[in-house]
Design goal:
By secondary structure, the protein is an alpha/beta fold. The chain contains 15 helices and 10 strands. Strands 1-2-3-4-5-6-7-8 form an 8-stranded parallel barrel, surrounded by 9 helices. Strands 9-10 form a two-stranded parallel sheet. Strand 1, helix 1 and strand 2 form a beta-alpha-beta unit. The protein binds 3-methyl-2-oxobutanoic acid and zinc ion. The site of 3-methyl-2-oxobutanoic acid has 9 residues, from strand 5 and strand 6.
Length: 391
């Protein structure tokens, strides 16, 4: 692999589907998988086959239909999990088995009732079993950021020794601060052979999922686990569109690349939002409705003179257009621009009157759309014509 490339591992259909209230049908998952393939993600985590018949079927169907991305399936260190994941991945051209077990004291004691030695033994046993059927095995140390770092090194070494070529250190509960996470990634990486790829998987409980993922990349991770629109357990996962754009738009800073086709980002976001029923908040970075809209007069004036004044990201590059909003804060320049785009001729007086109407209408209300603007123009023009002819 090119050392400068970051692999994008999409978990929209697995961790994303674990969002409270979301239940995708098999057909919807297959439709989203095709869009993720067009988007150019390296891995599509299609589901957790042992968890339900429909998850099993979705992984199997996606495995048989997707050729442009690797297809991954999740399994705990349990016989039944491994068996279901291996069977579901059978039709895949390029399968990945993603095996995990928790490694933090609280998870090992309260959830698994296993001591650290038994956890290490399970990792060794189940990764070897996974490797007997699937060449590409990823191991995740669940709750890595609340695990003892020395134990985590042992865990990673056992996993690598048993054949895992990718080792993921998830911030399962969104606990880590960016510097801490970077330190942990660098520490574990320094104890592993160079050909083992470290992966980051961050949850957004403190709103740090993207920042932490990028900090992990800075520290040497070369796979990032993300979900479209940042959906996932609780507060969600790191948002695919934010990670992909940060790496692409600030390539000068990162010196890294990925395979994501930016022009498919907006379409993918819409599809996931529609199929999951999870609305994207208006001010969400990159894909929110307001992410490329400008309302204040000063900003609109700048945008009309040179879009680089207030937009360093290219809205068109991700398949979303930029807009000047007509509302309570907008100015004359944006109004003129909109009227010209709509092919409406106007006088200076029309403009003055229309601005007055827009301010009144927009007070305490959303932005003015083209139809409403046309109505305002008609009213103003008729009134001006009437005055001109003494009516
Ligand atoms: O958050 C997490 O720890 C996970 C693992 C199963 C990778 O989703
Ligand atoms: Zn997760």
């Amino acid at each position: 692999m090119n050392a400068e490339q970051v692999l994008i591992f999409d978990t929209t259909l697995r961790d994303g589907e674990q969002s409270p209230g979301v239940a995708l049908t098999v057909a919807e998952k297959v439709e989203i998988a095709h869009q993720l393939e067009r988007l150019g993600v390296d891995f599509i985590e299609a589901g957790f086959p042992v968890s339900s018949a429909s998850d099993f079927e979705a992984v199997r169907e996606i495995s048989s239909q997707i050729a442009g991305s690797h297809v991954a399936a999740l399994a705990r260190c349990e016989e039944a999990d491994l068996e279901a994941a291996i069977r579901a991945l059978e039709p895949a051209r390029s399968p990945r088995l993603h095996v995990f077990i928790a490694t933090s004291p609280v998870h090992m004691k309260a959830k698994l009732n296993l001591d650290p030695e038994s956890v290490l033994a399970r990792i060794d046993r189940y990764i070897r079993a996974a490797r007997a059927s699937v060449a590409d095995v990823e191991f995740s140390a669940e709750d890595a950021t609340r695990s003892d770092p020395a134990f985590l090194v042992e865990v990673a070494q056992v996993a690598a020794g048993a054949g895992a070529r990718t080792i993921n250190l998830p911030d399962t509960v969104g606990y880590a601060m960016s510097e801490e996470y970077a330190r942990l990634i660098a520490h574990v990486k320094s104890h592993l052979p160079d050909d083992v790829i470290l992966s980051v998987h961050c949850h957004d409980d403190l709103g740090l999922a993207v920042a932490n993922s990028l900090a992990g990349v800075k520290a040497g991770a070369r796979q990032v686990e993300v979900a479209v629109n940042g959906i996932g357990e609780r507060a969600g996962n790191a948002a695919l569109e934010e990670v992909a754009m940060a790496i692409a738009a600030r390539a000068d800073h990162w010196g890294l690349s990925h395979r994501v086709n930016l022009s498919e980002i907006y379409r993918t976001s819409r599809l996931v939002s529609e199929r999951t029923g999870m609305m994207v908040q208006a001010n969400k970075a990159i894909v929110g409705n307001n992410a490329f809209r400008h309302e204040s007069g000063i900003h609109q004036d700048g945008m009309l003179k040179d879009p680089k004044t207030y937009e360093f990201l290219d809205a068109h590059a991700i398949g979303q257009g930029s807009h000047l909003v007509l509302g309570k804060h907008s100015g004359r320049h944006a109004l003129r621009d909109r009227l010209e785009r709509m092919g409406i001729s106007y006088t200076a007086e029309h403009l003055r009157q229309m601005q007055r109407h827009i301010k009144v209408m927009a007070e305490g209300k959303r932005a003015i759309d083209d139809q409403e603007l046309y109505g305002i123009w008609q009213q103003v023009a008729q009134q001006a014509d009437g005055e001109q002819y003494g009516l």
